[in-house]
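Onboarding guide, step 5: your first structure request.
Type a short instruction followed by the sequence, for example:

Predict the 3D structure of this protein.
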Amino acid sequence: MLSGRTEVQVRPGAETDLDALTEIYNHYVRETAITFDTAVFTARERRPWLLSHPEDGPYRLMVATDADSQAVLGYATSSPYRPKSAYVTSVETSVYVAPDVGRRGIGTLLYAALFEALAGEDVHRAYAGVALPNEASQRLHSRFGFHHVGTYREVGRKFGRYWDVAWYEKDLG
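The system replies with structure tokens like these:
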């Protein structure tokens, strides 16, 4: 797939991606309210997260790489929605792209691959929380058939202010 001037490949995540994935995520921790984590992670601290996303099953990690350099450009995940057993057929999805490659369709490629991977799994619904404002993420989720189901007002505090989170739902059944 072509995105901008970069040929992009999407594949399941691997342990060799851990440093790059941690670096991408830490950018969002430090610089944005897109995630409500407030302290950066080491790769070692993020390893259990990576290992909780195998190549099969409902909890996936898809990674976009530059076809030439193999540099990691971003990733998308499906993770447990809530820990209680009745939620097992629901997942929470997210997508993060490297800050220097935004607005080139990489998030779209990642979500397309993620939902294709989930098509054969016993997953009924996908949910996504979007810290507001974030028009790009809202458009991405709408493009993939997510519908806004509600907004939690001032649910998280980061950078000395409160943030709203809009919640989206997608039928996968």
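Each response can be followed by summary notes, for example: The chain has a mean pLDDT of 95.
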